[in-house]
Write a structure and sequence with these properties.
Number of helices of chain A: 11
CATH architecture of the largest domain in chain A: 3-Layer(aba) Sandwich
Number of strands of chain B: 14
Oligomer: heterodimer
Distance between the termini of chain B: 52 Å
Structural class of chain B: alpha/beta
CATH topology of the largest domain in chain B: Alpha-Beta Plaits
CATH topology of the largest domain in chain A: CV3147-like fold
Strand content of chain B: 15-25%
Radius of gyration of chain B: 35 Å
Number of domains of chain A: 2
Structural class of chain A: alpha+beta
CATH superfamily of the largest domain in chain B: Reverse transcriptase/Diguanylate cyclase domain
Helix content of chain A: 25-40%
Number of strands of chain A: 17
Shape of chain A: globular
Strand order of the largest sheet of chain B: 1-5-4-3-2
Strand content of chain A: 25-35%
Largest sheet of chain A: 7 strands, antiparallel
Helix content of chain B: 40-55%
Largest interface: A-B, 25 and 23 residues
CATH class of the largest domain in chain B: Alpha Beta
Chain lengths: 360, 511
């Protein structure tokens, strides 16, 4: 059943989108949230479940692909995503019936709401990641062999491109190259598929989950109570409450075309003496406790301020801070053999098998 | 050169000071230097999960670099009790070094290619092992020169700084050398079967838990020595067997039933002299027997001969029909008591373990007739059996009572059931049996019997009358011997019923 989203829902969504992508600067999320809230004053926003659509309805993923340039540094004009949807419809000769997030976290968790308001298309409560991954090929739709292309793109200066490539990894390379040429970011529409395909291969309830996370985080209640509710909602575990002792940039070699530099943060749990090491590239890929794997991508990790329970952005982490390291599992599809092949640490240049793979 | 200590024990501190780790930089060193027995060059983290303890883990540069990698490698290495982790020279944060310290594992950085360090170390470990092999070969030559079991065990013990070495059979120490340890010890055991499918015997070293001895090396030494132990044991057994021929012959010489020992001596005088038996010498015979024919009698003979030697008795032990026999020269009566004491203290417990008993003949001032003392010892051993395994019984303490040993208790019991049915059926049977038996033991004296049983005369008299009523023919002199025999057997059965079952349960051959 479709839901009319309220302004509070959007604010909670903003918190939830940041919670699931704590490694990334949240400025753009705030910019988009403000725009959405303003637009909602004149128009309602509908969140639909994929089951409500006709199985043959054409749906597309919308999302920003960035390469170096922060969106907040050069905000979009506003017509980019509509342009992409139009290009997609022209290319496929069919009308797009609904849109969904390319990634259910960070700015791409918010963008479909803005695009929904602009296009009057319903936003589907599903996505193909259940979180955010740096590569557009790292999707559950890819695991399900749903085609990524055609990909409609519109860049910083209004230039457009359509990429057609059957191999998702090749599509990734072409899109990355184009984004650089287009000015550092591009609005994109990709993974055009039927509602039935999305239903079979997508991750569902991801937008409402972000809203629920936001509700918990924004509630006027104790930190411990919030942790208990998050543990229940996300099956989360607090690995440690630890003090940051060391931050390292460029801590690993990288040659995989990943759109960020690797870094590491070392913390020390003052009650147990455990040494916790976070390996980061776009997001937290690996948590080692005394050298043993406590979490590894696709597991999700969020850092929280130990005093207030609020999300700690990696850019704001300083030596001496005390943070709580929270880990929780990603969508079940990611722990299949095909899922791990796309998203385990090896896919990020860390030659480690995910612990769940050895039991597979 | 002190041999066992000369076997090179490589450790991290030694290799850093003057070995293949000389070129590396210690990022963290554990306070005590870890032993090094192995080295692996790993190019995948998972490979560390399979390394053996005391291994130096060298990370290949192909694995990449980074603090996370070293952290994970340290963790895996710690889990596998590795000696140290060597990484390519790089700048590592205090956090990584802190983890090495937290886990207590040495972390070294190499300026050169870590593969080179691994190769150099492999060569060094190989060289150390070849020294071990050379040492083992030298030891094998030394131990092969020993011909007696005692010497072989002594050589093994000396090689291992005098630690306790023992040859054991089913938990029974047959022979040993070196110091018995009081404190905690590591027990290294090598299985050593004599012949095909033979009884399990083991060669065991008890090494102090000081870490001075390389336990793997101790095992290798035992394994190398094991053929010499077998050979010396076989040789000893063979020599004993040939020495025991005259003893064995005594039981095999034809003796007509009913003929006296002197007739036998007269008949075989020449042969006895040839066998080395001199009529003027005085001997005591000892007979060892088991309850039933033993499956591996030959093996048990070899085991018994070693035990026999442990009791410091030089006379050979012969394997004979129905048991084992030895004739021990004893010139004075007081020596017999010592001999009996020595057999009891040194052998009785082991005989019990093996489910055996022993009987000794009587010593006489006059030179004995050999067949007679052999028979005495055999009868004493037969009688000893009723008292359970481990019993050592002297015929001198037995005399004519030995005859009762040969009464078929089951048959006598059956006679009682048939001839004295009322006695057997009555409720206070045991009290009446013990009263009548005591009465007969004391030659018909009611007073003495009552005193023995701690009863009032009248009570005893009542029980005797009751026995008469139940059909026990107490007043027929011709039947008294049979009555006494029956009552003795019944009394014995009642007594055995009261005995706790553990009395017989320590026999090795009991199920």
């Amino acid at each position: 059943m479709s839901t009319q989203l309220t302004a509070d829902d959007v604010r909670h969504l903003r918190t939830g989108a940041h919670f699931l992508a704590c490694a990334i600067d949240p400025t753009a999320i705030h910019v988009y949230t403000d725009m959405i809230l303003q637009a909602m004053e004149h128009q309602s926003l509908e969140l639909a479940t994929v089951a409500e659509l006709a199985p043959d309805d054409l749906v597309v993923a919308v999302g920003m692909v960035t390469q170096g340039l922060f969106i907040a540094d050069m905000p979009p004009v506003g017509d980019e995503f509509l342009g992409c949807i139009n290009a997609m419809e022209a290319k496929l000769g069919r009308r797009v019936r609904a849109i969904y997030s390319l990634a259910a976290a960070n700015i791409n968790g918010m963008i479909p709401l803005m695009v929904g308001l602009q296009s009057s298309l319903p936003v589907i409560d599903s996505d193909p990641m259940g979180r955010v991954f740096p590569l557009i090929s790292q999707t559950t739709l890819n695991i399900g062999q749903v085609a990524i292309s055609p990909i409609a793109m519109m860049g910083v200066t209004g230039e457009r491109a359509i990429v057609e490539a059957t191999n998702p990894q090749r599509a990734e390379t072409l899109v990355r190259a184009l984004v650089t040429e287009l000015g550092g970011w591009a609005a994109t529409a990709m993974y055009p598929c039927t509602a039935a395909q999305l239903k079979e291969h997508g991750v569902h309830g991801s937008v409402s989950r972000m809203i629920r996370i936001g509700q918990i985080q924004d509630a006027e209640t104790s930190v411990e109570r919030k942790y208990l509710m998050l543990a229940e909602l996300l099956d989360a575990t607090r690995v440690a409450r630890a003090r940051v002792t060391h931050i390292e940039g460029l801590s690993r070699p990288t040659d995989l075309g990943l759109p960020a530099q690797p870094s590491s943060v070392t913390l020390e749990d003052e009650s147990t003496g455990q040494i916790i090491r976070l390996e980061i590239q776009n997001e937290i890929l690996l948590v080692l406790v005394d050298g043993a794997i406590a979490a590894a991508v696709p597991d999700m990790v969020t850092l929280l301020n130990s005093e207030h329970g609020t999300v700690v952005t990696l850019d704001d982490v300083r030596v001496g801070n005390v943070v709580d390291v929270l880990t929780y599992p990603a969508a079940a599809q990611w722990y299949s053999q095909a899922g791990l092949a796309l998203a385990e640490p090896k896919a990020f240049g860390i030659p480690l098998r995910h612990p769940r793979r050895s039991h597979a | 050169m002190h041999r066992s200590k000369s076997v090179p024990r490589l450790d991290v501190a030694g290799l850093l000071a003057h070995g293949s780790l000389r070129g590396t930089t210690p990022l963290y060193l554990t306070p005590s230097s870890a032993t090094v027995e192995n080295v692996v060059l790993v190019s995948q983290l998972e490979a560390i999960q399979r390394v053996r303890p005391n291994t130096v883990v060298v990370l290949s540069p192909a694995m990449g670099a980074g603090g996370w990698l070293v952290s994970a490698a340290l963790r895996h290495s710690w889990e596998r009790r590795a000696s140290a982790v060597v990484v390519a020279e790089s700048t590592y944060s205090n956090a990584v070094i802190g983890l090495a310290e937290r886990l207590g594992i040495t972390l070294l950085a190499s300026d050169d290619d870590p593969a080179g360090v691994a190769l150099a170390m492999a060569a060094e470990i190989g060289a150390a092992l070849s020294v071990v092999d050379a040492e083992l070969a030298r030891f094998a030559r030394a131990v092969a020169k020993d011909t007696s079991l005692g010497d072989v065990l002594k050589t093994i013990s000396n090689e291992l700084d005098g630690v306790g070495i023992s040859l054991e059979y089913d938990g029974v120490v047959l022979a040993s050398a070196g110091m018995a340890l009081r404190g905690e010890s590591e027990v290294i055991t090598v299985d050593m079967r004599r012949g095909n499918g033979g009884i399990r015997s083991t060669l065991t070293a008890r090494v102090p838990v000081s870490g001075v001895h390389n336990l793997q090396l101790v095992r290798s030494i035992l394994e190398v020595a094991s053929p010499s132990v077998k050979a010396a044991w076989l040789l000893g057994d063979f020599l004993e067997a040939s020495r025991a021929v005259p003893t064995a012959a005594l039981t095999e010489l034809d003796r007509h039933p009913g003929s006296s020992g002197s007739a036998f001596v007269d008949e075989h005088r020449h042969l006895l002299t040839q066998l080395g038996w001199r009529p003027e010498d005085k001997y005591v015979a000892l007979w060892i027997r088991s309850s039933a024919p033993h499956d591996a009698r030959q093996e048990l003979t070899a085991v018994l001969r070693l035990l026999w030697r442990k009791a410091a008795i030089r006379s050979p032990l012969a394997e004979v029909k129905g048991g084992w026999l030895a004739l021990i020269p004893v010139q004075h009566g007081d020596v017999v008591a010592q001999l009996e004491g020595r057999i009891r203290t040194r052998l009785a417990e082991t005989l019990a373990e093996l489910g055996l008993v022993a009987g000794l003949s009587t010593w006489n001032e006059d030179p004995p007739l050999l067949p007679s003392i052999v028979q005495e010892a055999r009868l004493a051993a037969e009688s000893a059996w009723s008292a359970g395994p481990g019993t050592v019984l002297a015929f001198a303490n037995l005399g004519v009572a030995a005859a009762t040993t040969f009464v078929d208790s089951d048959a006598v019991g059956l006679v009682a059931e048939l001839a004295l049915p009322r006695l057997m059926a009555c409720a206070d049977r045991d009290a009446i049996i013990s009263a009548v038996a005591a009465f007969l033991d004391h030659h018909g004296s009611v007073s003495l019997a009552a005193k023995t049983l701690d009863l009032h005369r009248n009570t005893l008299q009542t029980r005797l009358n009751r026995a008469r009523e139940l059909g026990v023919p107490l007043d027929s002199p011709a039947e008294l011997l049979s009555v006494h025999l029956i009552l003795n057997v019944l009394r014995g059965q009642a007594h055995r019923k009261e005995l706790p079952k553990t009395h017989l349960s320590n026999r090795k051959d009991s199920p």
